[in-house]
Amino acid sequence: MKKLGLLFAAVFCMSGIANAISISIDVGDRGYYNGPGYWVGRVQYCWIPGHWNRFHTVWIHGHYRPC
After folding, report:
1. pLDDT tens-digit profile of 20-56?
2. Residue 66, CB half-sphere, CA atoms under 13 Å: how many?
3. Counting Cβ atoms within 10 Å, is residue 2 exposed (0-12), middle (13-18) or buried (19+)?
4. Cα 9 to the chain's mean position, in Å?
5. CA geometry: angle at 49 spanning 45 and 52, to 5°?
């Protein structure tokens, strides 16, 4: 039984080396409402996505802004 487990582990490791594994990470920097914008009275608010500042040292989080 131990030999079967060891064989399975070896085959699993070799298949992992042969095929690249893709990992996707979602930062989650989006508004509560997932649409492009919303209205409050007569003002429409649009989603501005997050971005790095000019020197790439600070992350500016996404936010809603009047269009």
Report:
1. 666 655 566 666 666 778 888 999 998 888 889 999 9
2. 4
3. exposed
4. 31
5. 140
